Amino acid sequence: MHCRDKGCKRSLRKGKGPKRVGALYVTCQLLKVYFKLGTVHLCRSVIRSIETARIFDFEEFPTRDKVTYMYYTGRLEVFNENFLAVSDEVFIGLGS
Fold it and tell me: What PANTHER family does the entry give (predicted)?
């Protein structure tokens, strides 16, 4: 596995396997594709699998993946007109 940034390399050094490092990145890419294709209804199953798995500590992964994940989950909540959840996603994504 080739790491593109230092955050990924740090995660590998801390003992996380490549599957765990790539799980959030692949999820973000899936969410991006689903929104571009207009198949937003498929996003919920991907998000649900990440939320129920709890295979990783969210805070230890690269900031770019965390922000991207929170962006798309917030965008999905806007699509579903759940505006209170959006403010939570934005604050968590920004680290506030």
Answer: PCI DOMAIN-CONTAINING PROTEIN 2, UNCHARACTERIZED PROTEASOME COMPONENT REGION PCI-CONTAINING
Question: Total structural domains in the chain?
Answer: 1
Residues listed for the chain? 96
pLDDT tens-digit series, residues 55-92: 667 777 788 888 898 889 888 888 888 878 777 666 66
Mean pLDDT throughout 24-45?
A: 92
Q: What pTM was computed for the model?
A: 0.69
Tokens 């198949």 belong to which residue? Answer: 39
Query: Which structural domain, as residue segments, surrounds residue 59?
Result: 6-94
Burial class (CB in 10 A: 0-12, 13-18, 19+), 37: exposed
SS3 per-residue string spanning 37-53: HCCHHHHHHHHHHHHHH
Q: Percent of the chain having pLDDT more than 70?
A: 66
- Single-letter code of the amino acid located at 75: R
38-47: string of b/e by CB count within 10 Å (b at 16+)? eeeeebeebb
What whole-number distance in Å separates Cα of residue 16 and Cα of residue 12?
Answer: 5
